Amino acid sequence: MRAERLLNPAEKALRRLDEAADYLNSNEGEVFSLEVADTVRNYLLRRFELETLPRSLSEFAKAIPAKLVQHQSVLEHFASQLDFAESMGFALSVPDLEAIRDAARHVIIRTSLTSNGAGKARW
Fold first, then answer.
1. Are 32 and 24 in contact (CB under 8 A)?
2. DSSP 3-state of 73
3. Partners of 121 in the beta sheet?
4. Where is 95: in which H helix or E strand?
């Protein structure tokens, strides 16, 4: 019997985004958005060995650590998608929810392609 290979943080996060599709309808906009945000947050913590991140992605986008500065535009875009969702009371269409997922996927893919540097970053 062959052992299953361990997934790296990006693969785990992308898998979790796929699983969040269970909530991808306009009646579950808040649950879906929170699941996607939590997925990105946990991924960034693991991927860049961060000890903590602000709970709010808006705060996060304003205080991006040095390790992530090169990804500021994709992180800000993702945060703006979540801000839009919140401003709409999470009553979003499926295409709006898919845009949130796509922005999250973009963050994960873009940041997975870079070195995480030495040591642990502090926020």
1. yes
2. helix
3. 50
4. helix 94-112
